[in-house]
Specification:
This is FecR family protein. The chain has 307 residues and is α+β, with helices and mostly antiparallel strands. It has 8 helices and 18 strands.
Length: 307
């Protein structure tokens, strides 16, 4: 009897996917899916209204497959029942994750730092945004770099990996220090100490100190890191000795979350020595560069123009 029902259901689903079912057969599928959906146990406290959530899942699938007109209404109940099945196996929507209070930490014109509940320290660049739970629970420590750049000093805990989401990539560590630089065009992960795994779009690379991962144009690559980035210049005074102006500008971009515009690219090769205090404002550093180079750096919001 069970085999007969299974084969009949598979037959009707296949027929429906090809648009060959009659109205009566579509109603039969709908009634069956709705019946199974009603038998499922739904926790309103952390899963929300079942009708709304199943409709949201239905709409999401429609958008993903791009076949709104031919999509079958009964599938929203199958989708909802499938969520409950996966929930029962512990794949996602775990209550202890949903109940975690999320905090958003933002910076304006100067970098700032924060210490998380596990002892990890995050040094956030200017004009950046970072999200984290008030207290870590479960078997992972998950946070998000929403905008900008940061330096991470992750407290070691082998039983609870530390995972950072930044754009389309995920960085997974146990205890280490590294930079993450997130822009609209790409995302970089630069390792200073320890080992790091970076993954995204079905690709994965492992990094050790002096290496960086670059995710750009849907491609993830590994390469040697610039030595200038192998230090936490958010929290330390840094002297850039006989360094090109281009490299100085690159560090200022990441530390202060600004972009530079210049007409004469030849000045970027100019060598100079610059001292950057850990708590210096961008304006103070630019005044120093103006004096050394006789150039004129002016700040316009998040854009620095060079005359």
């Amino acid at each position: 009897m069970i085999k007969r029902i299974k084969h009949s259901l598979e037959y009707l689903l296949d027929k429906s996917s090809r648009g060959k079912t009659s109205s009566a057969e579509e109603n039969l599928l709908h009634d069956f899916a709705f019946s199974e959906y009603q038998k499922s146990k739904w926790n309103n406290d952390f899963m929300g209204n079942p009708e709304i959530e199943s409709q949201n899942m239905y709409d999401e699938i429609q958008l993903r497959i791009g076949k709104k007109k031919s999509f079958r209404p009964y599938l929203k109940y199958i989708a909802a029942a499938s969520i409950l099945f996966l929930l029962g196996l512990g794949f996602f929507l775990r209550p202890n994750v949903l109940n975690q209070k999320q905090i958003t930490f933002k910076t304006s014109s100067i970098p700032k730092s924060i210490q998380l509940s596990d002892g990890s320290k995050i040094y956030l660049a200017a004009n950046s945004s970072f999200q984290y739970p008030e207290k870590f629970e479960g078997d992972q420590r998950t946070v998000s770099l929403v905008k900008g750049n940061a330096f991470f000093e992750v407290a070691k805990d082998k039983k609870h990996p530390f995972i950072i989401h930044s754009g389309e990539i995920q960085t997974r560590v146990v205890g280490t220090s590294f930079h993450i630089q997130l822009s609209k065009l790409n995302c970089k992960v630069i390792v200073v100490t320890g080992k790091v795994n970076v993954s995204g779009k079905g690709q994965s690379v492992d990094l050790v100190p002096n290496q960086e991962a670059l995710f750009e144009g849907e491609k993830l690559t590994k390469q040697l890191a610039d030595k200038a980035f192998l230090v936490n210049w958010y929290n330390k005074d840094v002297t850039l000795d006989q360094t090109t102006l281009k490299q100085v500008i690159t560090i200022l971009q990441y530390k202060y979350g600004v972009s530079f515009e210049y007409n004469n690219k030849h000045v970027l090769a100019m060598p100079l020595t610059v001292f950057i205090k850990k708590d210096a404002t961008l304006e103070n550093v630019l005044e120093q560069i103006n004096y050394i180079t006789n150039l004129k750096f002016k700040v316009y919001g998040e854009i620095v123009k060079v005359d």
